[in-house]
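Fold it.
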Amino acid sequence: MPHSLFSDAVDIFEQLIAFDTTSRDSNLALIEWVESYLTRHGIGFVRLPNEAGNKANLYATIGPNIEGGVILSGHSDVVPVDGQDWHSDPFQLRYSDGKFYGRGTCDMKGFIALALAAVPLFKQGQRPVHLAISYDEEIGCRGAPAMIAEIADKIPAPRLAIIGEPSMMGLIKGHKGIAVHEVLVTGHEAHSSLTHLGLSANMVAVELMHDLAELSRNLWDKADVTSAFVPPHSTLTIGEIKGGTATNILAGHCRFAFDLRCPPGADPEAILAPFMEKSRALDAEMAAAFPGTGINVHKISATPPLSPQAGSDAEAFVRTLTGDNGPAGAVAYAAEAGLFQRAGFPSLICGPGSIEQAHQPNEYITADQMERGAAFMERLAEALR
């Protein structure tokens, strides 16, 4: 193997993939394994459980607890494998033809494995590495805010935060934000032949979704041709729809959910203002016609964008680790980097693997990317000595 750190990372990788940390389930078995690993290396840690006690964030400082360190951040949860055509057990790491297969290989347990494998090197540093592992990133970055607040309060100011989302080890200095909304429409059931006696929640939902579709199309007209984001404008998509019980019953309930993804500088509340106004007007009309009916729109989650900072010290530092002198990228997906930036930490994305493999059946990361990640960790350890 080209790197001893690489070999150690693969051993850890196998352990991490074996934990089914799908967001709907607990991640505690993985967290406990990481705690045991850190304990064996003489590293203290802080566990931050969620309210239910079935999930937890974890952070640890490796090296002296002083200013000027580097945060290495990754999420422990993965997306479901339900309904996907996997050619092998998704929770058993499999190596074939230069690729490691398994759920979470590229998104993003490979990065966590590399960071853990580098712990013995980081212990030798004169500046610290702060390891941060979150839960529920895949369902709205729900775990990270509490951990980031704790880190901001407890540890001396770090130099930067590196979020190891898959970027092919390239430098990403901007990502879009995301706001996920749920719309609940309550109608009044009646026989479908007697439409005057009821109010179909589905029909109201269709009207609202038509407005959102029109709004989505209008966003294309606001594209910034100079933007590094692809597509170079905000986007809105309706991802879930469920309503009605039978074709011959006016639907009593309909639920749909949509996400709005905005680049830095765009105002999601202003974009949605016409839709919210229409929803309130329709809600009043419905309640007047059939008491008890109406529309409820609420925000499920929101993650801020990562705003590119031109010529930053953080960017210059990470470039010394990657050797990449090309233009830094910007991505359309949301990540926890925006949360770290909002808390005052200079933040960038840099991690092994391609986002094109994320969330797919037979998800994989190449051995070459893991090797590059190992070299990155070695250079980071050297830079902190």
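The chain has a mean pLDDT of 96.
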